[in-house]
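Assemble and predict.
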Amino acid sequence: MFGITTSDTRYDDVWIVVPAFNEASVIAEVIADVRSVFRHVVCVDDGSSDDTSDRAFSAGAHVVRHPVNLGQGAAIQTGVEYARSRPGAAVFATFDADGQHRVKDVVRMIDRLTSEDLDIIVGTRFGDRVPEGMPKLRRLLFPIIAKVSPASRKLGLTDAHNGLRVFDKTVADGLNLTMSGMSHASEFVALIVENGWRVAEQPVEILYTEYSMSKGQPLVNGVNIIVDGLLRGRMRR
Amino acid sequence: MNWIQVLLIAAVVVLLVYLLASRRKAQSRAWVKVGYVLFVIAAVYAIVRPDDTTVVANWLGIGRGTDLLEYAFIIAFLFTTISAYMRFKDLELRYARLARAVALEGARAPEDG
């Protein structure tokens, strides 16, 4: 068994949501890493063709498996819906399955969420210093993309597309992501504005490994995100 | 600007706004059907008396009836494309919700969880 259970019960009301699609080679390691601090992890297998779910399960995660591939936004929504229905769940976090996030950043964000009376904290790659190892084009474009979105500009957010977020029950209960694909990040920000959730940013470090880079989004997908954002208000919720 | 240009631009804008604003209502679906009936009647008329399309085209400042039909066709195509796109997005969302319900039903929890 991978399951390393900690005697520390401080974070027992925390649920970590890990959306995963074909991540069999890294998922066990990522789940074990998260489980070294947090007891409750739900891995949403977004219809992977490999054995992502089995590996996540034996690493000690709750596993919810989409029968078909729906996209990351849908996976996050599923994970949050699962987690918010668990007894005692009070704090939630989204955490990418490719190992690009650090568990200690989540711990810092959770501590801050409770001490500063916020509803949600989103990670930013553009906090105190230039993100190390981030490809130049991305370094240049991401802050611009963040400013293009009216919602994220209003909130003064610098990085709308960071997969690391920590939030409370209010946000989890109110969350209703309808953009199944990669546009969910901007939709998340729009929901923050619409619901008046108290938000802050936390500088986090992204580990740009070769693996996480190979799983990354081609920049041209940004076009989809912009179009979806424009049409979002027209969709029936 | 000649009349046809004004009409075409107005038609595109009106269709777009109408489609986006009230796509859901049963009323808008009813209007789509009315529009379809009118389209069929106009099509039959244009087939029976093709030269009349040229007369109408001339009123609107275009030389040939063929051109008029082409413009109308382009607008109809745009309308169809957008409406299909929106409908697709809608179905995708329902599909996602269905898959989610299935997924949550079959969730596996670890023993110590």
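Chain B has four helices and no strands.
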